Structure formats: C-alpha cells, structure tokens
Amino acid sequence: MSRRRSPASLDAVADAVRRGGVVAYPTEAVFGLGCDPFNAAAVQRIYRLKRRPTTQGFLLIAASEAQLDPFVDWARLAPEALAEVRASWPGPHTWVLPRAASAPAVVAGAHQGIAVRVTAHGPAAGLCRAAGGALVSTSANRHGQPAARSVAELWQQFAGADLDALLDLPLGGLERPTPIRDALSGRSLRGA
User: Fold this and answer.
1) Is residue 5 part of a domain?
2) Cα(162)–Cα(145) distance, integer angstroms
3) For the stretch 30-48, what's the b/e string if a residue is b when 16 or more beta carbons lie within 10 angstroms of its beta carbon?
4) Is residue 115 part of a domain?
5) How many Å from the N-terminal Cα to the C-terminal Cα in the chain?
6) Which domain holds residue 104?
7) What is d(CA 113, CA 97) in angstroms, rounded to the nearest whole number?
8) Structural domains in the chain (count)
9) Which residues contact 91 (CB under 8 A, 6 or more apart)?
10) Per-residue pLDDT tens over the stretch 140-192
11) Which residues pair with 98 in a beta bridge?
12) Partners of residue 97 on adjacent β-strands
C-alpha cells in the first residue's frame, strides 16, 4: 500500500463500509476484501483492486439470514433445499441461491443466482452486524494469486492500493475457503 493502514477497531471498519469504503477483514480461512454490496462504486473498486473480471461476481456474507433478504428470492427455493441451507448456517457453507430483483447485478456478475453465507466466524459476523447488513466477501488477492492468510501477505499483494480500513483479527481456522454449492441443482461448485 502507498501507506499501510493501521489495524482499526470493528466500529471504525464498519464506519468505513458505511461511508462507501473498501476494507480488509478476516474470514473463516483467509483475509477478505469487502464493502457495502449496494455501493456500486465500492464494488467496482474491489474488481479493480483484484484485477478480476466483472462477469465473475462476488459472494456475500451476513450475520443472519435476515441480512440476506434484499439479495435472495427465498420463495424460489424448494422447502427441502431451504431446510438444507438453513441447517448449515451459521457456518462455513456458501450457497448459490436465487437472486432477488433488488440484488445489485454488479455483485452477481454474469450469474443468475447469488452466492451467500451466514457466517459463524465472530469477527466477520460482528463486522456485518456493526455495518448494518451483508457485505461483499471476496478473498484478498489479485486474480489468480493465492489468497492472503496474514496481514503481511495482504500487504504483499496490495502494495500501493488504498484500502480504507483493516480489521486485523484471527482467521477462523479453516485450511481452505468455504465450499460453495448450488441450492437449486445440489451441485458442488467449490470444495466439498
């Protein structure tokens, strides 16, 4: 980074999100980059920071299912699929669910659905609660590079970048990013 950000308190990081900032924070397995999913300029900034194609989209994390209501069309899920999703949350399970009409297209990329997770990781869930809603959650890395598992690795990949805040708390202990499954097809999209 042109100037490294000192770690900030949870409230300061949440305030940066609410002001339209891009922040780094710990998730279950890696550091993530996040922002308010309704702030298109912040979402576009993350695409640029990662050098990631906008067709790929981002997943969202939340502290509760209710925080996902603006993004998910729950009525399009079969009762059995909804029960399976709910049984896995809060926890390290990401699901592709039917996208609500109110979900910003910039977050979903070229996908019809939207990838979401209700996290049980304390720092990430706390950030969602403090920010007042779900957050974009994408691994802190340049497209195609290994995800940052430490603040030192975060700075290595984003030297010269201007992140607005850093929440430097422990990762959740997973060795790999959360598995992703499509709730409509049951298909595994990442991990197992």
Assistant:
1) no
2) 19
3) bbbbbbbbbbeebbebbbe
4) yes
5) 35
6) 10-179
7) 5
8) 1
9) 118, 119, 120
10) 999 999 999 999 999 888 876 779 999 999 999 998 888 899 998 888 887 75
11) 113
12) 114
Residue with tokens 């809060």: 90
4 in any annotated domain: no
Amino acid symbol at 86: R
Q: pLDDT tens-digit profile of 60-77?
A: 999 999 999 999 999 999
User: Is 188 within a domain?
Assistant: no
Maximum C-alpha span of the chain: 50
**Strands 135-139, 188-190: parallel, antiparallel or unpaired by DSSP?**
unpaired
pLDDT score for 5: 57
Name, in order, each residue with C-beta under 8 angstroms of 79's C-beta and a sequence gap of 6 or more. Answer: none
Average pLDDT over the chain reads: 92
Instruction: Report d(CA 182, CA 135) in Å as an integer.
Output: 20
152/122 Cα distance (integer angstroms):
22
- The CATH number for 103's domain is 3.90.870.10
